[in-house]
Amino acid sequence: MKPEQPAIEFRSDNAGRVAPQLIEALVQANEGTALGYGADALTARLQTRFAELFETAVRVFPVPTGTAANALSLASVCTPFGAVYCSPDAHINTSESNATGFFSGGAKMVPLPGQHGKVSAQALAAAIAGAGVGLAHKSQPAAVNLVQATDLGAVYSLDEIAAIAEVAHAHGLKVHMDGARFANAVASLGCSPAQAAWKAGVDILSFGVTKNGGLLGDAIVVFAPDAPPALGQHLRRAGMVWSKMRFASAQILAYLEGDLWLKLARGANQAAASIAALVGTLPGVRLVAPVEANELFIETDATVLDALQADGILFYRRGPRLGRFVCRWDTSAAEVDALATAIARHVARRA
Amino acid sequence: MKPEQPAIEFRSDNAGRVAPQLIEALVQANEGTALGYGADALTARLQTRFAELFETAVRVFPVPTGTAANALSLASVCTPFGAVYCSPDAHINTSESNATGFFSGGAKMVPLPGQHGKVSAQALAAAIAGAGVGLAHKSQPAAVNLVQATDLGAVYSLDEIAAIAEVAHAHGLKVHMDGARFANAVASLGCSPAQAAWKAGVDILSFGVTKNGGLLGDAIVVFAPDAPPALGQHLRRAGMVWSKMRFASAQILAYLEGDLWLKLARGANQAAASIAALVGTLPGVRLVAPVEANELFIETDATVLDALQADGILFYRRGPRLGRFVCRWDTSAAEVDALATAIARHVARRA
Amino acid sequence: MKPEQPAIEFRSDNAGRVAPQLIEALVQANEGTALGYGADALTARLQTRFAELFETAVRVFPVPTGTAANALSLASVCTPFGAVYCSPDAHINTSESNATGFFSGGAKMVPLPGQHGKVSAQALAAAIAGAGVGLAHKSQPAAVNLVQATDLGAVYSLDEIAAIAEVAHAHGLKVHMDGARFANAVASLGCSPAQAAWKAGVDILSFGVTKNGGLLGDAIVVFAPDAPPALGQHLRRAGMVWSKMRFASAQILAYLEGDLWLKLARGANQAAASIAALVGTLPGVRLVAPVEANELFIETDATVLDALQADGILFYRRGPRLGRFVCRWDTSAAEVDALATAIARHVARRA
Amino acid sequence: MKPEQPAIEFRSDNAGRVAPQLIEALVQANEGTALGYGADALTARLQTRFAELFETAVRVFPVPTGTAANALSLASVCTPFGAVYCSPDAHINTSESNATGFFSGGAKMVPLPGQHGKVSAQALAAAIAGAGVGLAHKSQPAAVNLVQATDLGAVYSLDEIAAIAEVAHAHGLKVHMDGARFANAVASLGCSPAQAAWKAGVDILSFGVTKNGGLLGDAIVVFAPDAPPALGQHLRRAGMVWSKMRFASAQILAYLEGDLWLKLARGANQAAASIAALVGTLPGVRLVAPVEANELFIETDATVLDALQADGILFYRRGPRLGRFVCRWDTSAAEVDALATAIARHVARRA
Question: Which domains does chain C have, with CATH numbers?
Fold first, then answer.
């Protein structure tokens, strides 16, 4: 199963390895007995740890996947006849197989225009104004979904988040952040987790772990003081509550220990930034969005992308002229170099 | 977090440790990159391995929890207006927070009489006969759920399963086995996995791992040749498909390696059998069901149960005079001895 | 389509005619234009009229069917992980094709023992006590469903309702009354509608019209001051809100006009009482429940029931020895006589 | 309740009266008894009548509302993880409070570009091509929804429908027609109902009655030979099946009798055409879409619309400069004249 020579892998950050510290945490947690379903000491510690991390009272729910985190978060703040505003590129809109509609009993995803995978505050305000608030036949504005970092690799500034949250809260909407790449965004912004979340107006956060060195779990973090008291029961009904929860909590505690999560994210971000620096100004190469996290969306001639694939470099085409390249926490300098060199070579050949 | 002296722990098999081989498998799997969502070599191997194990073509879907396995299995074989027959004691009926009703769009749990947590074939036949098959206002018989080992610690014989499956299949129902303790049952029956499952008529199986030394995942195994082709999409919509699936598959492969799963189960079963042998004939002590797997349900005087709790022995009361005692794969001889001795002592004192 | 001689019809009260006053009301309402979806003068009048009828502030929602009324009522007061307690004979449990489970997102029907199609207050208290309130894996007690008159033709006394409501409210459950035959029950009790409903503790009522001379609609009446503000939106999402609502409201107003509803119900009740008086004491005939509304459940020798069917008398067998006979508002004296005479004849022949 | 002088009413076709023939049909149907839930002679006749009307075998299901017809139709042909393509202006997308998402278990509405409220075949083909067919994380193309006449008052030509159906069927999608104004469209096209429906590729049709002189019901008509056999049960579970079905069927039979439905539609269409002819070429007046059925969408100066409202003319603003004017089957010549004259007057004043 081990390839002769390592792959040059840019398909996804979920193609990568687990940070060894998380597996080591499983070994450490594996002694004695403990009550199931979250009634254990490590899960209690997790609650405290997230309160410290975010500098406020929170509730944390480890869940198996990012889709679970998004769909249950949104379902918990959205009525069945509600509308969830999001970017057309948002993961909940493009890649979760109707999960939010399912868990919410029918809530509708409403894509809004915006740049680089972002929702714009103006578009949100306009959509709410035209939504027919209070009319029983209209999907009622319930929540806005921000993907941070975005699905095009950009990062919302704190001001952008705050502007959206202000519009949302003025009309009673909740702000959900899909933080599958929250670590990458916080590392990129250089701010505190609190600043990146509730201080900017986020009510409920899908806290990503898997893509950034995690194993088999992410988490939901609830900031809103009037947050749904029944989220725990919704999760149980959804089959999302592990009986051996302590082993999920142990992983996430290790992920936070000594800022490991930010170190891992910086590795991935740095790899992406290096590639952007090396290829971003090449003729015939366009970065579709600013490279602010660990993803690059590169628009170039189809023959260039074809040639990269012929080289055996692993990445996804998002169109004939559009390639997505994702860096992992452990993307190697060799991979960065191989990709940048190959792009430069194929672009040059073409010119 | 380590107690001064080890707990005498009989609350649940999910309170126990992970078999170290499963964590070691994570370490082994943690190299190189791999495609996500099950498109990796280990998950491909898992498919093959289960086909070998069950001596037939199967499809296997690792899922986070037993509730997920049960609810998605049943939802996949049951219409929204269907009825699922089960024991009143069945986990899906008592302990899964309406998950099957939710995932199926409303399917109804219909408890049937039976002994020791089992469904009886006669009761099933009678229920189907009176169900109003074909009448649009009646919940239509869709599936029968067998918990193996049962929620009272008994084990269905192969003949019992076959008799139920015969009734079910004669009327178009699917047979779902909740095998949260499938390993314990197979170890108890001394038969092959195939005999305990599809050869006896099981169409779809929740294959338990967590309670028997697992970590954070179980699996759905589909035997029925006309099984729902869309189960993969249902799981994705349900947020149940890990992007880093290879780490789930690695665990389950290790769980099967060298019959580890059966060895673990035998440990738990043996502990339960030992206790049963030591206390089962004491005066004033009644075993509510035959102890055929790793659970004992002991009916005795309330003062005896009170005294055990006062001793610090950990177990659950299921009523004033009823205690549930669950053995783990790593329940120690000391625990067995401590419990049996304490019961004998308190019973003697009372007499 | 008109039979040579009129049928002797006891299959169902929904097999009967519409009270002509309701059709006449459609003719009267059919002039001018009016806003749709309930924003018309007749629907406004309906709200006022029900407030008068029930002597308190209420909200009224006309809906197409009794199943719609029951399922939406219960879904509006029940969480998705809730339990709805009911009689095993309750229409929601036996005859609505999982509708309540569907609209509520999975809520579970939990049948409780009781006599004559009733829930007993003691059984309810015991069920709540054993439900595991607050445990996330347990279906949480949410509502109790009372069918009035019951599905076996009995009528809850006001004290019986109050006793159930007291238990329910003490534990935070809502009381739903399935009043598909509410008119029959009120006529039987001889009390005011208010006494039969909220004064006895009912929070939400399915107010039946169809079975008692109605056409194509029933209604939901909400008494609870903290009733779900979103019920209107739930109904809209469910496709249950007629655009030409004024024609639904006109019918229900006519139904109430001059106590028409009670007069119709008295006709049906009297027919049933007459039959009961004529056959109830015959040897070998047993009335399964007191005949307090418009239904009789007659247990007798199978040959008697066979003979009635051979006579062409229309009714349903509920078992070899059990027949259900339902009287309509317009059941004729001739029908009553024909049935009673035939039963007496066949019983005598058998003796 | 009767206004001093008749309203000039252009708010909606559901604001209008019932065609008296439908109420008369209720009177005629109101004798004798009949089995409930569709097992009556009139409903049997309805099946035959629709087969005649559409010149093919069909199944017909009367339902309470157009939303019910749309949502249940689509849910019956769409998996929970499916995508339903539609116009951004489609009623299912704008005005049904997430009903289709709810009944389908989460199916997603995907708006496609097109003119005049239509879906374009090209846009549909492009959307399917980019949908990620077969990928479990992508909403799978399941159905396309055509509103006929469209929500902007235009009518699909038979060729347009056929082109869309060809694309849809080539990729396994079902074609659903929201025929809330099917009568208006057929009258406008001058073709047979069969040509307007299954001969052009429609698989399942919401057959509108309410807006065109109906009372409290529409119908679902299923053409697809492999149509969901369980639709009847889905409707029952949804509380959509009237026990006194014969009175729903009687209305629809009357609606078809002697081509009444087309006569009513021609009345409404003619009124709209007259207004269009009178105002369509006025300076500063633009008809947003061709007036091919009974609706006009008029774009003009805000002051003109303000003045019409000040005149007491009843219609809806769809924006500051956009008014919607809907003609009913009984819109009077006086209303047509009053509206056209007022528009002309206000436009002239402004010039």
Answer: 8-15+260-350 (3.90.1150.10), 20-259 (3.40.640.10)
